[in-house]
């Protein structure tokens, strides 16, 4: 599937480049870096969006809008792994698309639309990226983080996660168990429990 594929020169060692390095290159206008970033993330973003929206046209538009936003705002990325940032953009674009559909169905004119307060889902997603949970997620290994995002954040079954990530179901289960333990430990390090009581 190719929804948005920038044309650019060949990049050496694409697989070894971190998302942060790719985003820095995208911020400098490197379309080949954008193509690598798209190839790396478009598949799982499409799968997650499809879980939340049955309209394939809306999913395609949201995915396209997500990568257009990445192209325009890559300089604003904080420098960590891009998955959470990309998903936050995609989820917000999906919410925007649904709201636009609802307004159009009610016959409202676009010039009368007002931006409502962030939804619960948007606040949770922002917390996952920017709060303690997001910081803790950044501290666990990428393969464990991917399983947690698929099973917990996206609510995929073990079988769906295995298909999405291309790993056996047993591996999904063992990684999910390890991921939860590592996430708890990372959160505990971020927020250590007070020792001792009042004197």
Automatic annotation (TrEMBL):
Does this UniProt record's set of keywords contain Iron-sulfur?
no
- Record GO biological process: DNA-templated transcription initiation
- Which InterPro entries does its entry note? RNA_pol_sigma-70-like, RNA_pol_sigma-70_dom, RNA_pol_sigma70_r2, RNA_pol_sigma70_r4_t2, RNA_pol_sigma_r2, RNA_pol_sigma_r3/r4-like, WH-like_DNA-bd_sf
**Does the entry feature the keyword Transcription regulation, yes or no?**
yes
List GO molecular-function terms, semicolon-separated: DNA binding; sigma factor activity
Boundaries of every RNA polymerase sigma-70 region domain copy: 37-103
Listed A to Z, the keywords are: Sigma factor, Transcription, Transcription regulation
Quote the Pfam families the UniProt record gives.
Sigma70_r2, Sigma70_r4_2
| Domain RNA polymerase sigma factor 70 region 4 type, first and last residues per copy | 133-183
Q: Which family does it belong to?
A: Belongs to the sigma-70 factor family. ECF subfamily.
This one is known as RNA polymerase sigma24 factor
Organism per entry: Streptomyces brasiliensis
Q: What is the lineage of its organism?
A: Bacteria, Bacillati, Actinomycetota, Actinomycetes, Kitasatosporales
């Amino acid at each position: 599937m190719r929804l948005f594929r920038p044309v650019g020169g060949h990049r050496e060692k694409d697989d070894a480049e971190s998302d942060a390095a790719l985003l820095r290159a995208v911020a400098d206008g490197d379309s080949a870096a954008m193509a690598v970033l798209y190839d790396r993330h478009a598949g799982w973003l499409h799968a997650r969006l499809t879980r939340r929206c049955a309209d394939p046209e809306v999913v395609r538009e949201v995915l396209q809008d997500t990568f257009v936003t990445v192209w325009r705002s890559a300089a604003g990325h904080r420098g960590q792994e891009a998955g959470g940032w990309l998903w936050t953009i995609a989820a917000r674009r999906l919410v925007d698309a649904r709201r636009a559909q609802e307004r159009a169905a009610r016959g409202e004119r676009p010039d009368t639309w007002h931006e409502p307060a962030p939804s619960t889902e948007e606040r949770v997603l922002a917390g996952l990226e920017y709060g303690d949970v997001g910081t803790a997620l950044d501290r666990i290994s990428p393969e464990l983080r991917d399983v947690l995002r698929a099973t917990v954040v996206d609510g995929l079954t073990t079988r769906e996660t295995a298909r999405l990530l291309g790993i056996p179901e047993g591996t999904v289960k063992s990684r999910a168990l390890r991921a939860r333990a590592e996430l708890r430990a990372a959160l505990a390090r971020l927020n250590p429990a007070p020792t001792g009581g009042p004197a």
